[in-house]
Amino acid sequence: MLSSSHAVEISGLEKRFTRKHDGEVSLAVDNVSFAVPRNSFFTLLGPSGCGKTTTLRCLAGLETADSGEISMNGQPVFSAAARRDIAPEARPIAMVPQSYGIWPHMKVFDNAAFPLRHGRKTYPRAETKKRVLAMLEQVGLSEYADRWSTQLSGGQQQRLALARALLCEPEVLLLDEPLSNLDAKLRSQLRAELRSFQQKFGVTSIYVTHDQGEALAMSDTIVVMNRGRIEQIGSPSEIYDSPASRFVADFIGSANLVPGVVDASGDRAVDAKTAVGVVRCERFTAPPSPPTAGQELSVCIRPENIRVTTEPAEGPNRFAARITTTEYLGDRHEVVAMVGDVSLRAYADAHLSVRPGDEVTVVLDPAWTVALWS
Ligand code: ATP
């Protein structure tokens, strides 16, 4: 399975932890496999405790997995079966931890220079100085080189941590929630910066976050994890528009999920019988086995893919509804519409005058309606 287009490959990774107080064993990483394309921004996304940090720490060599294999640049760095476990400092990686790992007793320059003085590859004094100053310039910190690192703001510390990691010239940059200590505004500014640094330096980056907005905005590929397992791997738009499970649909963005059963299925669409009526779903992943009438599923539709209208509407997936709540958001109304007993969240045009109690038609765009098998 090794191929040189991948900077990292993981297969069948498992990591168990034993709780100290009662000896109970938990599976933090459960049969995780993925391949990271070279030069890409690859994100591990999931709720707290889903195993993303443990996966990253196994990649860094800071945690020893119980089973599985890891290779970097086609070279095995870990194999449980072969008892191979290359030390962290011998792996072609650099890590930016959540807390940045900046030393308060050192000046900015010395923090950045550390890997060039003590790391895998060291340089003569003049060359170190040249490289560090050039990197500080790149991340906008050249005027701070002589300051104590404690005098930097949170965003500047984050840039310093990134500069130090990039000075190691890693094949793979591991980033563990590096923006989580910053306020919301700075976070959104720095995520754009981080992404542009990644593209400028062309360094393969593996990024851990529980923030779906961050993952969608920054990534080439997202791995969604839940309880140690992979739920889905795909591009941001694949994950958002064609979620593979209820978990993914619910965790990323906002989704209406309506249970139902298969009414009929073909190559291009699945018709689902639900409490709303028969809903045509033109998006679905390959079912575990050919779907049969009566098989349970969930219909997933995002609010922006439901049209709310007071005019007559044509085509499939039209249902009579009653508005129960409306919220004016300036560019649109966010409404809850009841179709029988089922409530659907939808966005209505800002110019449409809708009030609680109004009778409307909702149209679930079949092209964006997803049949989920789990
Ligand atoms: P977070 O976003 O909160 O950091 P995470 O998705 O990164 O969560 P992990 O830190 O990988 O999750 O933890 C996965 C599971 O393994 C959790 O249930 C956690 O409690 C457990 N775990 C992690 N490290 C240890 C450890 N050293 N000893 C015991 N259990 C651990």
Q: Gist?
A:
This protein has 374 residues and is α+β, with helices and mostly antiparallel strands. The protein is built from eight helices and 22 strands.
**Backbone CA Rg:** 25 Å
Level-1 CATH class name of the largest domain: Alpha Beta
Bound molecules: adenosine-5'-triphosphate
User: Which class of secondary structure composition applies to the elements?
Assistant: alpha+beta
Mean of all residue-level pLDDT scores: 92
CATH topology of the largest domain: Rossmann fold
Low-confidence stretches: none
* Individual helix count: 8
Extended strand count: 22
Helix and strand pattern: EEEHEEEEHHHEHEHEEHHEEEEEEEEEEE
* Distance linking N and C termini: 29 Å
Helix content: 10-25%
Number of domains: 2
Question: What portion of the residues fall into strands of 2 or more residues?
Answer: 35-45%
Q: Name the CATH architecture of the largest domain.
A: 3-Layer(aba) Sandwich
The 3D shape can be described as globular
CATH superfamily of the largest domain: P-loop containing nucleotide triphosphate hydrolases
Q: Any overview of this molecule?
A:
The chain has 374 residues and is α+β, with helices and mostly antiparallel strands. It has two domains: 6-241, Rossmann fold (3-Layer(aba) Sandwich); 254-372, Nucleic acid-binding proteins (OB fold (Dihydrolipoamide Acetyltransferase, E2P), Beta Barrel), CATH 2.40.50. 23% of the residues lie in helices and 37% in strands. The protein has helices at residues 52-60, 108-118, 125-138, 154-167, 184-201, 212-218, 236-241, 246-251; strands at residues 6-18, 25-37, 41-45, 67-72, 75-79, 84-85, 93-96, 172-176, 204-209, 221-226, 229-234, 256-265, 270-274, 277-281, 283-284, 296-301, 306-309, 318-328, 332-339, 342-349, 359-364, 370-372. The strands form four sheets. A six-stranded mixed β-sheet has the order 7-8-9-3-10-11, sandwiched between helices. A hairpin with a 4-residue loop joins strand 12 and strand 13. Helix 2 (108-118) crosses helix 3 (125-138), helix 2 (108-118) runs parallel beside helix 4 and helix 3 (125-138) crosses helix 4. The model has no long low-confidence stretch (mean pLDDT 92). The protein binds adenosine-5'-triphosphate. Adenosine-5'-triphosphate is lined by residues 17, 26, 28, 46, 48-54, 210.
